[in-house]
Amino acid sequence: MAELNLVLLGPPGSGKGTQGERLNEDLRLPYYATGDILRAAVRDETQLGKTAKEFMDRGDLVPDDVIIGVIAERIEGSEAADGFILDGFPRTLPQAEALDDELEKVDRGLTAALLIEVPEEEVVRRLGGRRTCEKEGHVFHVEFNPPEEEGVCDIDGSPLVIRDDDKPEVIRHRLETYHDKTEPLVSYYEEKGLLRQIDGAQPPDVVGERIRALLSTLRMEEDI
Ligand SMILES: [Zn+2]
To answer: How far is the CA of 130 from the centre of ligand 1 (A)?
Structure first.
């Protein structure tokens, strides 16, 4: 069977994490979200994990070459022999190029970059409607998952607040950052013929079905 080496791209609020976890269950391929990988490398005290920890402990961003090293450790490991799903990496063009170099070293390459597209208003609607319980962080949504009593957590009765991350002006800023950094990546994968766009404005089950259909087509093409 052909390998499925996948990169997930999409704005905050696109449901990328949800789809990544589904793919992980359906395809039994490891799902690597950058944040989780870094935490695991630190926990397992690998050399790279130790280096990453020094930056994290100081509250600094982990530099590209360290992240690339941590990712390379994973995708070159035996658990990723049949493929992998990357989320949150690459985030910039140099990271995308470094990923290609790493894969090339082991005679592999990406199968596809899946771009989950969601219009900006929909992202604002999804993220802007989130309400988080002050005490335990339980998450509700004014439209999709409203609490029984407005502004009060169903579970522990604490007040529900809008996290800073979910404030409209912050959401706009996160989207701008995403566009600035990710658009060059989209063109990069498009030029390589690896980009596949998915309409992420649909409900998660529909999006999941479309991704599955797309991947079986890709697999057939690879097997030919
Ligand atoms: Zn709560």
So the answer is: 13
